[in-house]
Amino acid sequence: MIVNASEADAGKRLDVFLQEQLPEYSRSRLQDWIKAGRVLVNGAGGRQSSSKLRGGEAVEVEPAALAPLKAYAEDLPIEILYQDDDVIAVNKPAGMVVHAGAGRHSGTLVNALLHLFGTLATGGGEERPGIVHRLDRFTSGVLLVARTDAAHRGLAAQFAGRTVEKIYLAMVHGTVKAAEGRIEKPITRDPARRLRMTARLGEGRSAITEYRVLERFAGFTYLEVRIRTGRTHQIRAHFASIGHPVAGDRMYGAPATTLERTFLHAHRVRFAHPATGAEVTVEAPLAPELAAWMNNLRGAG
């Protein structure tokens, strides 16, 4: 794969630049690839991780095979919202990770689904079978999973083509004045805090978020949110960028509250069935702990 450095990247360390461009890989793994000669800058190898870019370079990366993490079945409670021979839709609870990754090999949604269904599509790899999209750990709600490889290809194409409707419910800090609106800001990795994204730099991948006010409270606004793109932490980064972080989201600057998770819920997904083409809509009611917290806001008002 080739990533191109812009003039704005001048002076950046090579490993830092690659981590920004390829966040799916850890910095230590990228440093190993640089040392092994798997990273070429303008066709030449021999660079160090600390080498500084001048801007404008073409950086070619040849990833080494990753050691697979094979998911296994685990008896965990999970709510199934929809299922047929091709597709499963689950109501993911907040706190549950979708699939295995660094430092986590059990307790995931995939572990629970393998226990219930035995096999899933292989397109996501051994560590994330059936997975075509993800929700953050502390986001609840509808998540689609493919049972067959054909369904995985069909759903993945719809997500890539932005034809899947994804509606969220969110409570944000402050008073959002407009009854509805649109946030269109590019999102990139935050150079100051590598675990989060930012929409404050005016650079990165394009991202579009639309919202509609459902209810206003003292100090908070309850929103219906539609995302037109599917960037990492998109809703969280976008609303933080306009001064309205999601309630409970301390990573993105939300003040402390009594809420023990982020107030972000994947409420509805609408897609074309990958086998029949029929429109399918799946909804997950607002998580009970979020509904209770919002009722407390009503009572306080």
CATH topology value of the largest domain: Pseudouridine synthase
CATH class of the largest domain: Alpha Beta
Look at the structure and give the mean pLDDT.
90
Helix content: 10-25%
CATH architecture of the largest domain: 2-Layer Sandwich
Describe the structure.
The protein is of the alpha+beta class and 301 residues long. The protein has three domains: 60 residues, Structural Genomics Hypothetical 15.5 Kd Protein In mrcA-pckA Intergenic Region, Chain A (Roll), CATH 3.10.290.10; 95 residues, Pseudouridine synthase (2-Layer Sandwich); 108 residues, Pseudouridine synthase (2-Layer Sandwich), CATH 3.30.2350. Helix content is 20%, strand content 26%. The strands form three sheets. Strands 4, 5, 6, 7, 8, 11, 12, 13 and 14 form a nine-stranded mixed sheet that branches. Strands 1-3-2 form a three-stranded antiparallel sheet. Strands 9-10 form a two-stranded antiparallel sheet. It is globular. 37% of the residues are buried.
